Amino acid sequence: MGIRDFLSEKIQKVGVIAKKQIDENLWMKCSACGEVNYHREVTKNLNTCPRCGKHFIIPAMDKINILLDKGSFQEMDSGLRSLDPLKFRDSKKYTDRVKAAVKKTKMNDAFVSGVGRINGKPVHIGAYEFNFLGGSMGSVVGEKIVRLIESAIENNQHVITISCSGGARMQESILSLMQMAKTSAALVKLRKAGLAHISLLTDPTTGGVTASYAMLGDVNIAEPGSLICFAGPRVIEQTIRQTLPEGFQRAEFLLEHGMIDMVLSRKEWKETIYKLLEFFG
Fold first, then answer.
1. Phi/psi at 30 (nearest 5 deg)?
2. Better-scored residue on pLDDT, 25 or 278
3. Which residues bind Zn(2+) per the record (predicted)?
4. Is 49 exposed, middle or buried (0-12, 13-18, 19+ CB in 10 A)?
5. In 3D, which of 103, 106, 94, 279 has the Cα closest to residue 172?
6. CA–CA separation, 103 and 81 (whole Å)
7. Which residues lie closer than 8 Å to 281 by C-beta, 6 or more apart?
8. How many H helices and E strands in the chain?
9. Which residues are annotated as a binding site for Zn(2+)?
10. Nearest-angstrom CA–CA distance, 84 and 169
11. Binding-site positions
12. CA 8 to centroid of chain Cα atoms
């Protein structure tokens, strides 16, 4: 092969790679309906498919920003970080997994919490970052949720939680599982103080998070199509050896069977939740 042919082949390969990167930046294929949409159009539509309404997983701060008045959010307890008292290791050290998650998300753990306003009304709010170890609830997440609730009681404000989690963080074993009782107990104090907990469930909300505070809202709201469960449908089918109903454990199925109160698209979040806050006073 001559130098001219060699360079021509290299240029063609670079062109293919560049085109692929451009295409991926411009377009995205919906995992639900298969339609190809402009990224810009999807973003403008609050990261939902303009064709079928599929709600894509988005970062915690994006969810908070959909709800809150622009510039009103003030974060709390951002410096809390997970320890490794069990010296846990599977294929990697737990500490290494946490370091990688911190680097990836620019967050110290899987839950961001703080205060803000919805149409001028002050609230305490917290949301999960699914990209941080699957949004798992460890000791830091549980502590941040409890601190959020305690601060809300002190300031006489309602609480909004936005869940998106694979469940308890098994690398922390019982220290993770105890957060289920810890967060649920904090909500008892909130209710005794006459304050509301609005629980917003996004895809997916599973495991120990579902089995504790996430389903203990005074109002439980889900995104369309969200998977909300303790054990997933595949595990259940393998256990009971039966075929499950269509849509089992999805938001609409849970609404039909009285497990949640409403299913809301992201476009409806702010106005509906503001009305709920007004109702609770």
1. -70, 130
2. 278
3. 30, 33, 49, 52
4. buried
5. 94
6. 13
7. none
8. 10, 9
9. 30, 33, 49, 52
10. 12
11. 30, 33, 49, 52
12. 47
Q: What angle do CA 226, 229, 235 make, to 5 degrees?
A: 115
CA distance 160 to 201: 11
pTM: 0.88
| C-alpha closest to that of 24 among 43, 38, 10 | 38
Residues of the chain above pLDDT 90, percent = 75
Sheet architecture: strand order including 262-263: 74-76, 111-118, 121-128, 159-165, 197-205, 219-222, 262-263
- Among 199, 212, 179, 188, which Cα is nearest to 260's? 199
| Alpha helices, DSSP H, located in the chain | 3-26, 39-44, 60-67, 94-105, 139-155, 173-192, 207-210, 233-240, 251-256, 266-280
Domain layout of the chain by residue ranges? 1-54, 56-280
Please give the Cα distance from 29 to 23 (Å, whole number).
Answer: 11
Q: In CATH terms, is domain 56-280 a member of 3.30.930.10?
A: no
Token digits of residue 38: 């402009």
Choose among 250, 242, 264, 225: nearest CA to 63: 264
Give the length of the chain. 281
Residue burial 137-166, b: 16+ Cβ < 10 Å; e: rest: bbbbbbbbbbbbbebbbeeebbbbbbbbbb
